[in-house]
Specification:
This protein has 10 helices and 14 strands. With 345 residues, the chain is of the alpha/beta class. It has 2 domains: 238 residues, Vaccinia Virus protein VP39 (Rossmann fold, 3-Layer(aba) Sandwich), CATH 3.40.50; 90 residues, no CATH class.
Length: 345
């Protein structure tokens, strides 16, 4: 099935395309996909296929070839689209090359991509490592790129954690982490840094904040009081609006979203279990795809993976109600991906 025919159907099951990623992408129309999530073969580590990217003699050729594919990804992404790139590093002559960041800088400097996040994928447990002169490698990079600094699609609420709830104990409001306001009241009362007018304003603002917790408008808060707590980021008013607020008002609040907190940029995710597989040993797990797909593609949107392998990205996209297109050089991998996606229907 061709892409235009697939887009005209109501099916959510993936479309798989056999071929070289660069050649196939060049056939796709511009501004088509909402999100691209992929993990290309790593340089010098591809042992499960006999052609394609990753087999270059020099890492610079690898970066150049991958860059050409990323340029096509940028072309076929919608203006509001996102590109998530998982890439691992490699050694050459005992030297850790720094391939992920070499690629990221290439994309920013040469192609105009905007880098919004560098996620550290902590694989929790690494493979066997018998080297005696360096530490074990147990992390990889996941870069989040967009085409423009503003206006790209991002659904923060779709990826928030389930928040703890505030409660009322003996008539007093207690936040999700046990904040009752008692300590803040005492600090305001005894402060020698606040004027009487500032103290009155601080007491009133604290009561309003506790009322918002009781109404579940916010899940939690922290109160920063002049002379009691340090400014959150910097004491310099040139770089921190909070520092200016603290000087002018004597206090400010950090409020926690009622729908829970956003994920951090360190993800603890076990690699894919490859022990029971006969082929394809990439450790790329489904959990690595969940945040990118939920946050940066709308329900019913279209997800791309130009190095789809056995279809991990496509499986997650289908579960979350997104259409998807996967490209790979290996017909054997795509057969497995087709079979895998069929079990989800």
């Amino acid at each position: 099935m061709r892409l235009e025919n697939y887009l005209g159907t109501a099916r959510v099951s993936p479309l798989f395309v056999l071929g070289d990623a660069l050649d196939v992408l060049r056939e796709f129309p511009p501004d088509t996909f909402d999100c691209c999530m992929t993990s290309p073969p790593y340089w010098g580590k591809r042992e499960y296929a006999n052609s394609g990217i990753g087999l270059e003699r020099d890492y610079r050729d690898f970066i150049r070839n991958l860059g050409a594919i990323c340029a096509e990804i940028k072309r076929v992404l919608k203006p509001a689209g996102s590109f998530w790139l998982n890439i691992g590093d490699s050694y050459a002559g005992k030297n850790l090359i720094g391939i992920p960041w070499r690629i990221a800088i290439e994309l920013m400097d040469k192609q105009g991509w905007i880098l919004r996040n560098n996620v550290i994928w902590n694989k929790v447990k690494g493979g066997p490592d018998n080297t005696k002169d360096r530490l074990r490698n147990v992390h990889e990079d996941v870069f989040h790129f967009v085409k423009s600094p503003r206006g790209y699609y991002y659904d923060t609420d779709a990826i928030r954690s389930t928040p703890k709830q505030a409660k009322v104990v003996n008539g007093s409001v207690v936040s999700a982490t046990g904040v009752r306001g008692v300590r803040y009241r005492r600090q305001i009362e005894l402060s020698s840094d606040l004027t009487e007018e500032e103290k009155t304003d601080a007491f009133g603002a604290l009561e309003q904040m506790l009322s918002r917790v009781a109404a579940r408008e916010i899940a939690d808060f922290r109160m920063i009081i002049r002379g009691q707590q340090r400014t959150t980021h910097s004491d310099s008013e040139k770089v921190s609006g909070r520092a200016k607020e603290l000087r002018e008002k004597g206090f400010y609040f950090l409020k926690y979203h009622p729908n829970g907190s956003k994920p951090s940029d360190v993800w603890d995710i076990l690699p894919e279990d490859t022990q029971k597989r006969k082929i394809h040993f990439a450790p790329y797990p489904e959990d690595l795809c969940k945040i990118p797909i939920l946050a940066t593609s709308p329900r019913g949107g279209l997800v791309l993976d130009p190095f789809c392998g056995t279809g991990t990205t496509m499986s997650v996209a289908s579960v979350f109600g997104r259409k998807s297109v996967g490209i790979d050089l290996s017909g054997e991998y795509l057969a497995i991906a087709e079979e895998r996606s069929a079990t989800l229907l």
